[in-house]
């Protein structure tokens, strides 16, 4: 079946390309019609070495049992983009050894008068913050931060988005607003009757003949899944120890998912080369499960646990003079439960439900080098140093689940990217 899908995809690509050639020919003859079809994509092939066989990892997925090194196709993207006058549409899929997956499928209608407002419908990047919408083909690190991978797995969602930007040459130039109404569970099939609201307000400016550029943004998220149980768990203190406390809840009621985020970017040219700084901070309330704080992509199937969280990331990117060599450093932190920490995690008190592995915080410092070999080929070498919060009150079935000390879960990645 998978083979049939792939053959069908390439047949479709061939049909579109053939049609595109005809369209391009017609466009030459009929200059008043503006339309184009483009085919693009990229392949990221990488080799990774893990500290511990079978370890959990945010660097492309967990390692299989007994495996501490692997070759993998991290991303194999094929993208079709069609533009006609004030409308355009995009279809993008991802093909790897794990299978075929949809990434983008949307149309966009832009106002034909001022070209400052647009309506997008389909599967698209959630308009929250900066890191989500920054393309994986351009990103200087192998993966997005743990914070964003946890809150926004897969990056995309299904719904509609309205975008407005300030007219160029005016006081509002560089100002942008995106507001989206989405299912709230990624690109999975809708599992409840609720919809989630996402918004991002941004301002981008440049100065000194574009030698300095900066941006600021603020984001909000309001939504959440439906309760499928008559119980939910929230954080309370019992004899001075933070624990989960069970509360009665109406089945089908919404569990509030609430985020507030701030992002900032700065880039400037100087003697050592072009330097870039990027930072983002998010706090809020996250509905999850007893053993995971990752955003739900379907029905909970059990009681929902509400956790107050916070997290941030900081990038420093330095182009080495005018060479194709680039140094990158990133620090990211994700605390899934700010109400508890240290040895209080997993501590049992009274009849309260104790916290667990899903409440352990992580900090990651990564650094590496990128080399733009040609305009099509980019090389990357990157090392992630992962540090976890420690507690003596969690079960220690193996070294993989021993949180009494920092686990050995660092990761080294070598990647080759080819773009077309």
Can you offer a commentary on this structure?
The protein is mainly beta. The protein has 2 domains: 1-33; 34-419, Beta Barrel (Porin). It contains 2 helices and 18 strands. It has helices at 2-29, 146-151; strands at residues 35-50, 69-84, 87-96, 99-110, 117-125, 156-165, 175-182, 196-207, 212-223, 231-238, 241-248, 257-270, 273-288, 304-319, 325-335, 362-372, 377-388, 411-419. The chain has a 16-stranded antiparallel barrel with strand order 1-2-3-4-5-6-7-8-9-12-13-14-15-16-17-18. A hairpin with a 6-residue loop joins strand 4 (99-110) and strand 5. It is globular, with a radius of gyration of 23 Å. The two termini are 27 Å apart. Residues 1-32 have low confidence and may be disordered.
Rg, Å, rounded: 23 Å
Question: What is the CATH homologous superfamily assignment of the largest domain?
Answer: Porin
Strand order of the largest sheet: 1-2-3-4-5-6-7-8-9-12-13-14-15-16-17-18
Content of β-strand: over 45%
Overall strand count: 18
- Series of secondary-structure elements, N-terminal to C-terminal: HEEEEEHEEEEEEEEEEEEE
Number of helices in the DSSP assignment: 2
What would the CATH topology of the largest domain be? Porin
End-to-end separation: 27 Å
């Amino acid at each position: 079946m998978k083979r049939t899908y792939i053959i069908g995809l390439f047949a479709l690509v061939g049909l579109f390309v053939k049609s595109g050639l005809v369209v391009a020919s017609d466009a030459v003859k009929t200059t008043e019609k503006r339309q184009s079809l483009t085919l693009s994509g990229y392949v990221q092939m990488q080799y990774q070495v893990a500290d511990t066989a079978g370890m959990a990892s945010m660097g492309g997925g967990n390692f299989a049992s007994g495996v501490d090194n692997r070759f993998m196709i991290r991303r194999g993207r094929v993208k079709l983009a069609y533009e006609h006058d004030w409308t355009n549409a995009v279809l993008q899929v991802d093909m790897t050894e794990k299978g075929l997956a949809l990434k983008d499928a949307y149309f966009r209608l832009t106002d034909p008068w001022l070209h400052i407002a647009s309506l997008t419908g389909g599967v698209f990047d959630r308009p929250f913050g900066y890191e989500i919408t920054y393309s994986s083909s351009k990103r200087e690190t192998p993966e997005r931060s743990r914070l964003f991978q946890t809150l926004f797995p897969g990056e995309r969602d299904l719904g509609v988005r309205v975008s407005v930007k300030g007219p160029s040459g005016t006081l509002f130039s560089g100002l942008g607003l995106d507001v989206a109404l989405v299912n709230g569970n990624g690109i999975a099939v809708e599992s409840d009757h609720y919809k989630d609201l996402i918004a991002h307000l941004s301002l981008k400016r440049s100065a000194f003949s574009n030698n300095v550029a900066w941006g600021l943004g603020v984001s909000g998220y309001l939504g959440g899944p439906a309760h499928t149980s008559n119980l939910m768990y929230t954080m309370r203190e019992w004899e001075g120890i933070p624990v989960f406390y069970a509360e009665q809840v109406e089945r089908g009621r919404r569990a509030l998912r609430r985020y507030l985020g701030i992002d900032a970017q700065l880039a400037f040219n100087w003697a050592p080369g072009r330097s870039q700084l990027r930072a983002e901070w998010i706090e809020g309330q996250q509905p999850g499960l007893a053993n995971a704080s990752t955003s739900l992509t379907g029905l909970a199937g059990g009681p929902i646990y509400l956790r107050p969280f916070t997290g941030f990331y900081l990038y420093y990117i330095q182009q080495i003079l005018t060479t194709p060599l680039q140094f990158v450093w990133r620090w990211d932190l994700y605390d899934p439960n700010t109400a508890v920490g240290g040895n209080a995690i997993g501590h049992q008190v009274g009849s309260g439900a104790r916290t667990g592995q899903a409440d352990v915080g992580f900090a990651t410092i990564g650094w590496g080098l990128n080399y733009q070999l040609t305009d099509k080929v980019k090389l990357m070498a990157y090392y992630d140093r992962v540090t976890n919060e420690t507690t003596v009150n969690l079960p220690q079935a193996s070294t993989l689940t021993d949180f009494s000390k920092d686990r050995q879960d660092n990761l080294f990645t070598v990647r080759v990217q080819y773009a077309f």
